């Protein structure tokens, strides 16, 4: 059986689609990529939160499936908004990669006073600002290779650890930031595979490459994202893991400069309820005032 996968055209996106193809191969499925140029790819200069937030890397890829040009879509899950377009469904989430962030160009302890750090993420900026309010932040856009090439222009940059691992890139100076230092973005390190709701045969194949543990953790994180009512413009973070036969969910909401940070850390059995409870707890403490005008 041959299926067409809609994907962005960056080296990381193509790696992800090739990875999904390798998972489907033993099931007798051959995958042909359909490269889609997204609005986020077309505008490489403006900050992500100014050109549409999370949807800028997903909408056109999703449309390729909705318009029957592709059978399913492969996304970096962190790029997906909390709601899925009518006609599509988040079918499968394979085993998650490293969810952590990476500081490249310097270690955290060796960043100079008043140092210059580049990142395109308001979440990363807010959390590092809280630790080091002396730092100056700069915008960072482009694919992973482009971002790495800009390291020499700053004291450090922050990118996802999993992107480096998947592309086999090994910067000379790097510090992996543990969740206790920098809580990851919703879905970071995971892939999301969407298909048309009515394509039951395709769904049957895709479900076979899902990792149940990862899916449960992602469901908790995305439930939090949906309930908190934030998007890529907002400094929020959420990370779920399994601990002692339960789901542990850590979440965070901040203002952009990191002066105010609200956190929540709880465990539960039901992923969807856990995400909602965490979001509601932060909302009751004033979370929405931090990211809504």
**Strand tally, please?**
13
The major pleated sheet works out as: 5 strands, mixed
Question: What class do helices, strands and sheet pairing give?
Answer: alpha/beta
| Terminal CA distance | 50 Å
CATH superfamily descriptor of the largest domain:
Periplasmic binding protein-like II
CATH domain class name of the largest domain: Alpha Beta
Write the H/E string, N to C. Answer: EHEHHEEEEHEHEHEEHHEEEHH
What does this structure look like?
Helix content is 32%, strand content 25%. It is built from ten helices and 13 strands. It has helices at 11-24, 39-42, 59-66, 122-131, 144-149, 161-167, 200-207, 212-228, 271-284, 287-291; strands spanning 2-7, 30-35, 72-76, 88-92, 101-104, 116-118, 136-138, 156-160, 174-177, 191-196, 236-243, 246-254, 261-268. It has a five-stranded mixed sheet, with helices on both faces. A five-stranded mixed sheet has the order 7-6-8-5-9. Strands 11-12-13 form a three-stranded antiparallel sheet. The longest helix has 17 residues, at 212-228. The model is unreliable at 48-52 (pLDDT under 50).
Structural topology:
Blueprint: E1 2-7, H1 11-24, E2 30-35, H2 39-42, H3 59-66, E3 72-76, E4 88-92, E5 101-104, E6 116-118, H4 122-131, E7 136-138, H5 144-149, E8 156-160, H6 161-167, E9 174-177, E10 191-196, H7 200-207, H8 212-228, E11 236-243, E12 246-254, E13 261-268, H9 271-284, H10 287-291
Parallel strand pairs: 1-2, 1-3, 6-7, 6-8
Antiparallel strand pairs: 3-10, 4-10, 5-8, 5-9, 11-12, 12-13
Helix pairs in contact: 8-9
């Amino acid at each position: 059986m041959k299926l067409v996968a809609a994907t962005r055209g960056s080296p990381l996106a193509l790696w992800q689609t090739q990875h999904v193809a390798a998972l489907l191969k033993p099931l007798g499925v051959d995958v042909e990529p359909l490269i889609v140029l997204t609005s986020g790819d077309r505008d490489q200069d403006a900050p992500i939160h100014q050109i549409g937030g999370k949807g800028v890397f997903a909408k056109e890829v999703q449309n390729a499936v909705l318009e029957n040009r592709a059978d399913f879509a492969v996304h970096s899950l962190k790029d997906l908004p909390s709601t899925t377009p009518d006609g599509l469904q988040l079918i499968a989430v394979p085993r998650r990669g490293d969810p952590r962030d990476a500081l490249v160009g310097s270690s955290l302890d060796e960043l100079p006073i008043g140092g210059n750090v580049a990142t395109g993420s308001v979440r990363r900026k807010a959390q590092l600002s809280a630790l080091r309010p002396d730092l100056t932040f700069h915008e960072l856009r482009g694919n992973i290779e482009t971002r790495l090439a800009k390291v020499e222009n700053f004291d450090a940059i922050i990118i996802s650890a999993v992107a480096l691992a998947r592309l086999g890139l090994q910067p000379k100076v790097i510090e992996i930031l543990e969740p206790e230092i920098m809580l990851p973005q919703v879905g970071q390190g995971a892939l999301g595979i969407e298909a048309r709701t009515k394509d039951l045969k395709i769904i049957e194949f895709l479900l076979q490459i899902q990792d149940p543990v990862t899916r449960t953790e992602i469901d908790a994180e995305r439930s939090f994202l949906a309930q908190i009512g934030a998007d890529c413009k907002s400094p929020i973070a959420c990370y779920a893991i399994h601990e002692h036969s339960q789901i542990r969910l850590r979440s965070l909401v901040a203002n952009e400069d990191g002066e105010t940070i609200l956190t929540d850390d709880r465990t539960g059995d039901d992923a969807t309820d856990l995400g909602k409870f965490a979001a509601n707890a932060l909302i009751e403490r004033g979370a929405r005032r931090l990211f809504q005008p």
